[in-house]
Amino acid sequence: MDSMSQQWRLVKQVIRRADVVFEVLDARDPMATRTKKVEAYVKKLGKPLILVINKSDLIPRSVAEKWKKVLSREYPTIYIGARDRLGTRQLWKAVKMAARGKKPVTVAIVGLPNVGKSMIINVLKGRSSAGTSPIPGFTTEAQTVRAATWLKVIDTPGIVPRLSSEELVFRSALRPESLEDPLIPAIKLIEKLASKDPEVFQRTYGIKSREPLKILEELARRRGLLLKGGEPNVEEAARILIRDWQKGKLVVYFTPEDYGLT
Ligand SMILES: Nc1nc2c(ncn2[C@@H]2O[C@H](COP(=O)(O)OP(=O)(O)OP(=O)(O)O)[C@@H](O)[C@H]2O)c(=O)[nH]1
Ligand SMILES: [Mg+2]
After folding, report:
1. Which CB contacts under 8 angstroms, 24+ apart, belong to 209-217?
2. In this structure, which of 42, 127, 138, 247 has its CB flanked by the most CB atoms within 10 Å?
3. pLDDT for 155-202, tens place per residue?
4. Does 30 sit in the ligand 1 pocket, CB within 6 Å?
5. Ligand 1: distance of its center to the CA of 135 in Å?
6. For the whole prediction, is pTM greater than 0.85?
7. Is 3.40.190.10 the CATH number for 165-257?
Protein backbone atom coordinates (compact mmCIF):
# COMPACT_ATOMS: atom_id res chain seq x y z
CA MET A 1 0.00 0.00 0.00
CA ASP A 2 1.45 3.40 -0.90
CA SER A 3 1.68 6.17 1.65
CA MET A 4 -1.14 8.09 0.02
CA SER A 5 -3.68 5.35 0.73
CA GLN A 6 -2.30 4.99 4.25
CA GLN A 7 -2.91 8.69 4.91
CA TRP A 8 -6.35 8.48 3.42
CA ARG A 9 -7.16 5.47 5.58
CA LEU A 10 -6.06 7.39 8.65
CA VAL A 11 -8.09 10.46 7.69
CA LYS A 12 -11.15 8.27 7.12
CA GLN A 13 -10.72 6.79 10.60
CA VAL A 14 -10.59 10.28 12.09
CA ILE A 15 -13.67 11.36 10.14
CA ARG A 16 -15.57 8.35 11.47
CA ARG A 17 -14.65 9.34 15.04
CA ALA A 18 -15.68 12.98 14.54
CA ASP A 19 -19.08 14.65 14.88
CA VAL A 20 -18.15 17.49 12.54
CA VAL A 21 -15.56 17.85 9.78
CA PHE A 22 -13.73 21.07 8.87
CA GLU A 23 -12.26 20.95 5.39
CA VAL A 24 -9.46 23.54 5.22
CA LEU A 25 -8.82 25.32 1.90
CA ASP A 26 -6.09 27.71 0.73
CA ALA A 27 -7.56 31.16 0.09
CA ARG A 28 -5.29 31.63 -2.92
CA ASP A 29 -7.28 28.95 -4.72
CA PRO A 30 -10.03 27.44 -2.57
CA MET A 31 -11.52 25.50 -5.48
CA ALA A 32 -8.26 23.77 -6.41
CA THR A 33 -7.58 22.81 -2.80
CA ARG A 34 -10.88 21.01 -2.21
CA THR A 35 -10.77 17.25 -1.85
CA LYS A 36 -13.88 15.79 -3.41
CA LYS A 37 -13.08 12.37 -1.96
CA VAL A 38 -13.28 13.78 1.56
CA GLU A 39 -16.50 15.62 0.85
CA ALA A 40 -18.12 12.51 -0.63
CA TYR A 41 -17.05 10.39 2.33
CA VAL A 42 -18.37 12.86 4.90
CA LYS A 43 -21.63 13.14 2.99
CA LYS A 44 -21.97 9.35 2.91
CA LEU A 45 -21.62 9.27 6.70
CA GLY A 46 -24.20 12.05 7.01
CA LYS A 47 -21.91 14.28 9.09
CA PRO A 48 -21.82 18.08 8.88
CA LEU A 49 -18.97 19.53 6.82
CA ILE A 50 -17.75 23.12 7.06
CA LEU A 51 -15.42 24.70 4.49
CA VAL A 52 -12.75 26.81 6.17
CA ILE A 53 -10.91 29.10 3.76
CA ASN A 54 -7.59 29.78 5.49
CA LYS A 55 -4.73 32.19 4.71
CA SER A 56 -7.29 34.84 3.79
CA ASP A 57 -4.69 37.44 4.81
CA LEU A 58 -3.14 36.70 1.38
CA ILE A 59 -6.18 37.82 -0.63
CA PRO A 60 -8.43 40.90 -0.69
CA ARG A 61 -11.40 40.69 1.64
CA SER A 62 -13.78 41.25 -1.31
CA VAL A 63 -12.45 38.07 -2.96
CA ALA A 64 -12.77 36.11 0.28
CA GLU A 65 -16.39 37.29 0.50
CA LYS A 66 -17.04 36.14 -3.07
CA TRP A 67 -15.62 32.69 -2.40
CA LYS A 68 -17.69 32.45 0.75
CA LYS A 69 -20.83 33.33 -1.16
CA VAL A 70 -20.16 30.87 -3.98
CA LEU A 71 -19.04 27.95 -1.79
CA SER A 72 -21.85 28.47 0.71
CA ARG A 73 -24.23 27.13 -1.92
CA GLU A 74 -22.64 23.74 -1.25
CA TYR A 75 -21.47 23.84 2.37
CA PRO A 76 -21.43 26.36 5.21
CA THR A 77 -18.25 28.35 4.53
CA ILE A 78 -16.11 30.72 6.59
CA TYR A 79 -12.83 32.47 5.88
CA ILE A 80 -10.08 33.02 8.41
CA GLY A 81 -6.37 33.80 8.69
CA ALA A 82 -5.17 31.36 11.32
CA ARG A 83 -1.59 32.60 11.41
CA ASP A 84 -2.68 36.11 12.39
CA ARG A 85 -5.69 34.92 14.38
CA LEU A 86 -8.11 36.56 11.93
CA GLY A 87 -11.68 35.29 12.10
CA THR A 88 -11.25 33.43 15.38
CA ARG A 89 -14.79 34.39 16.37
CA GLN A 90 -16.18 33.03 13.09
CA LEU A 91 -14.28 29.83 13.70
CA TRP A 92 -15.81 29.34 17.15
CA LYS A 93 -19.25 30.25 15.83
CA ALA A 94 -18.87 27.62 13.11
CA VAL A 95 -17.84 25.00 15.67
CA LYS A 96 -20.91 25.75 17.79
CA MET A 97 -23.24 25.93 14.82
CA ALA A 98 -22.05 22.62 13.40
CA ALA A 99 -22.21 20.93 16.83
CA ARG A 100 -25.93 21.80 16.97
CA GLY A 101 -25.85 21.94 20.74
CA LYS A 102 -24.20 18.54 21.09
CA LYS A 103 -21.65 18.51 23.93
CA PRO A 104 -19.04 17.13 24.08
CA VAL A 105 -18.20 17.45 20.41
CA THR A 106 -15.29 16.21 18.30
CA VAL A 107 -14.15 18.13 15.22
CA ALA A 108 -11.84 16.65 12.57
CA ILE A 109 -9.59 19.11 10.72
CA VAL A 110 -8.76 17.76 7.26
CA GLY A 111 -7.40 18.97 3.93
CA LEU A 112 -4.37 19.11 1.66
CA PRO A 113 -0.86 19.45 3.10
CA ASN A 114 0.22 22.99 4.04
CA VAL A 115 -3.26 24.58 4.09
CA GLY A 116 -2.90 25.43 7.81
CA LYS A 117 -4.71 22.60 9.61
CA SER A 118 -2.27 22.52 12.52
CA MET A 119 -2.33 26.32 12.77
CA ILE A 120 -6.14 26.16 13.15
CA ILE A 121 -5.76 23.61 15.93
CA ASN A 122 -3.52 26.12 17.71
CA VAL A 123 -6.06 28.92 17.25
CA LEU A 124 -8.77 26.81 18.86
CA LYS A 125 -6.46 25.66 21.62
CA GLY A 126 -5.43 29.26 22.25
CA ARG A 127 -1.73 28.43 22.19
CA SER A 128 0.78 26.43 20.16
CA SER A 129 0.16 22.79 20.69
CA ALA A 130 0.37 21.33 17.18
CA GLY A 131 3.58 21.67 15.19
CA THR A 132 3.33 23.84 12.07
CA SER A 133 5.80 24.23 9.22
CA PRO A 134 6.12 25.76 5.74
CA ILE A 135 7.19 22.29 4.60
CA PRO A 136 4.17 20.37 3.25
CA GLY A 137 3.59 16.97 4.80
CA PHE A 138 4.74 18.09 8.24
CA THR A 139 2.02 16.45 10.32
CA THR A 140 2.26 12.70 9.93
CA GLU A 141 -0.13 11.43 12.57
CA ALA A 142 -3.57 12.21 13.91
CA GLN A 143 -3.36 14.25 17.09
CA THR A 144 -6.28 14.94 19.40
CA VAL A 145 -6.25 18.24 21.26
CA ARG A 146 -8.72 19.36 23.90
CA ALA A 147 -9.61 22.95 22.98
CA ALA A 148 -12.37 23.40 25.58
CA THR A 149 -13.97 21.20 28.22
CA TRP A 150 -16.64 20.32 25.64
CA LEU A 151 -14.48 20.38 22.48
CA LYS A 152 -11.93 17.95 21.07
CA VAL A 153 -10.23 18.78 17.78
CA ILE A 154 -8.25 16.24 15.77
CA ASP A 155 -5.34 17.33 13.58
CA THR A 156 -4.64 15.08 10.60
CA PRO A 157 -1.86 14.65 8.04
CA GLY A 158 -2.49 16.37 4.71
CA ILE A 159 -4.16 14.34 2.01
CA VAL A 160 -2.13 14.37 -1.19
CA PRO A 161 -4.47 14.07 -4.16
CA ARG A 162 -3.54 11.83 -7.08
CA LEU A 163 -2.37 14.56 -9.45
CA SER A 164 0.72 15.31 -11.53
CA SER A 165 3.67 16.91 -9.74
CA GLU A 166 2.88 20.17 -11.57
CA GLU A 167 -0.61 20.19 -10.14
CA LEU A 168 0.68 19.32 -6.67
CA VAL A 169 3.28 22.08 -6.80
CA PHE A 170 0.54 24.53 -7.69
CA ARG A 171 -1.41 23.32 -4.64
CA SER A 172 1.66 23.76 -2.38
CA ALA A 173 1.25 20.09 -1.51
CA LEU A 174 4.68 18.75 -2.45
CA ARG A 175 8.15 19.36 -1.02
CA PRO A 176 10.34 20.73 -3.80
CA GLU A 177 13.21 18.54 -2.53
CA SER A 178 11.18 15.50 -3.44
CA LEU A 179 11.09 16.52 -7.10
CA GLU A 180 13.70 14.87 -9.24
CA ASP A 181 13.25 17.60 -11.83
CA PRO A 182 11.88 20.81 -10.30
CA LEU A 183 12.36 22.74 -13.53
CA ILE A 184 9.24 21.77 -15.46
CA PRO A 185 6.89 22.15 -12.46
CA ALA A 186 8.48 25.53 -11.66
CA ILE A 187 8.08 26.71 -15.25
CA LYS A 188 4.44 25.60 -15.26
CA LEU A 189 3.93 27.39 -11.96
CA ILE A 190 5.50 30.58 -13.33
CA GLU A 191 3.24 30.41 -16.39
CA LYS A 192 0.16 29.85 -14.29
CA LEU A 193 0.93 32.66 -11.84
CA ALA A 194 1.93 35.04 -14.64
CA SER A 195 -1.32 34.31 -16.47
CA LYS A 196 -3.17 35.75 -13.48
CA ASP A 197 -0.67 38.43 -12.51
CA PRO A 198 2.13 39.25 -14.97
CA GLU A 199 3.74 41.64 -12.47
CA VAL A 200 4.20 39.15 -9.64
CA PHE A 201 7.88 38.34 -10.30
CA GLN A 202 8.77 41.99 -10.72
CA ARG A 203 6.97 42.78 -7.47
CA THR A 204 8.43 39.90 -5.47
CA TYR A 205 11.95 39.62 -6.85
CA GLY A 206 12.39 42.80 -8.89
CA ILE A 207 12.81 40.65 -12.00
CA LYS A 208 11.47 42.29 -15.15
CA SER A 209 11.64 39.35 -17.55
CA ARG A 210 8.40 37.54 -18.29
CA GLU A 211 10.00 34.45 -19.72
CA PRO A 212 9.98 31.52 -17.25
CA LEU A 213 13.51 30.29 -17.87
CA LYS A 214 14.91 33.83 -17.82
CA ILE A 215 13.17 34.46 -14.52
CA LEU A 216 14.81 31.37 -13.01
CA GLU A 217 18.22 32.31 -14.41
CA GLU A 218 17.95 35.80 -13.00
CA LEU A 219 16.75 34.50 -9.63
CA ALA A 220 19.72 32.10 -9.50
CA ARG A 221 22.20 34.89 -10.34
CA ARG A 222 20.78 37.20 -7.73
CA ARG A 223 21.03 34.51 -5.08
CA GLY A 224 24.55 33.66 -6.13
CA LEU A 225 23.48 30.18 -7.19
CA LEU A 226 26.04 29.43 -9.85
CA LEU A 227 27.29 26.15 -11.25
CA LYS A 228 30.99 25.38 -11.62
CA GLY A 229 31.16 26.91 -15.08
CA GLY A 230 29.46 30.05 -13.79
CA GLU A 231 26.06 29.33 -15.33
CA PRO A 232 23.05 30.01 -13.13
CA ASN A 233 21.78 26.99 -11.20
CA VAL A 234 18.21 27.11 -12.48
CA GLU A 235 17.21 23.90 -10.68
CA GLU A 236 18.03 25.41 -7.31
CA ALA A 237 16.21 28.61 -8.33
CA ALA A 238 13.22 26.47 -9.32
CA ARG A 239 13.12 24.97 -5.81
CA ILE A 240 13.35 28.41 -4.23
CA LEU A 241 10.51 29.73 -6.35
CA ILE A 242 8.30 26.74 -5.51
CA ARG A 243 9.09 27.23 -1.82
CA ASP A 244 8.27 30.95 -2.03
CA TRP A 245 4.87 30.03 -3.46
CA GLN A 246 4.32 27.51 -0.64
CA LYS A 247 5.29 30.06 1.96
CA GLY A 248 2.94 32.70 0.58
CA LYS A 249 5.83 34.98 -0.37
CA LEU A 250 4.67 34.94 -3.99
CA VAL A 251 1.14 36.23 -3.79
CA VAL A 252 -1.28 35.43 -6.60
CA TYR A 253 -4.88 34.43 -6.08
CA PHE A 254 -7.70 32.99 -8.12
CA THR A 255 -11.31 34.12 -7.97
CA PRO A 256 -14.69 32.44 -8.48
CA GLU A 257 -14.82 34.18 -11.88
CA ASP A 258 -11.73 32.20 -12.92
CA TYR A 259 -13.92 29.12 -12.50
CA GLY A 260 -16.88 30.64 -14.27
CA LEU A 261 -18.69 31.02 -10.95
CA THR A 262 -20.43 34.20 -9.84
N1 LIG B 1 -0.18 33.64 5.32
C2 LIG B 1 -0.65 32.66 6.10
N3 LIG B 1 0.08 31.55 6.31
C4 LIG B 1 -0.44 30.60 7.09
C5 LIG B 1 -1.72 30.70 7.68
N6 LIG B 1 -1.97 29.57 8.37
C7 LIG B 1 -0.89 28.79 8.22
N8 LIG B 1 0.05 29.41 7.46
C9 LIG B 1 1.37 28.90 7.10
O10 LIG B 1 1.22 27.77 6.28
C11 LIG B 1 2.21 26.80 6.60
C12 LIG B 1 1.54 25.48 6.90
O13 LIG B 1 0.82 25.55 8.11
P14 LIG B 1 0.45 24.24 8.92
O15 LIG B 1 -0.55 24.58 9.97
O16 LIG B 1 1.68 23.53 9.32
O17 LIG B 1 -0.28 23.41 7.75
P18 LIG B 1 -0.88 21.93 7.78
O19 LIG B 1 -2.14 21.97 6.99
O20 LIG B 1 -0.96 21.44 9.16
O21 LIG B 1 0.22 21.15 6.93
P22 LIG B 1 0.60 19.55 6.98
O23 LIG B 1 0.85 19.19 8.41
O24 LIG B 1 1.81 19.49 6.11
O25 LIG B 1 -0.55 18.82 6.38
C26 LIG B 1 3.02 27.37 7.76
O27 LIG B 1 4.21 27.92 7.24
C28 LIG B 1 2.12 28.43 8.33
O29 LIG B 1 2.87 29.50 8.89
C30 LIG B 1 -2.47 31.91 7.45
O31 LIG B 1 -3.57 32.11 7.94
N32 LIG B 1 -1.88 32.83 6.64
MG1 LIG C 1 -0.04 19.89 10.08
Report:
1. 212/186, 212/187, 213/187, 215/190, 215/241, 216/183, 216/186, 216/187, 216/190, 216/241
2. 42
3. 999 999 999 999 999 999 999 999 999 999 999 999 999 999 999 999
4. no
5. 9
6. yes
7. no
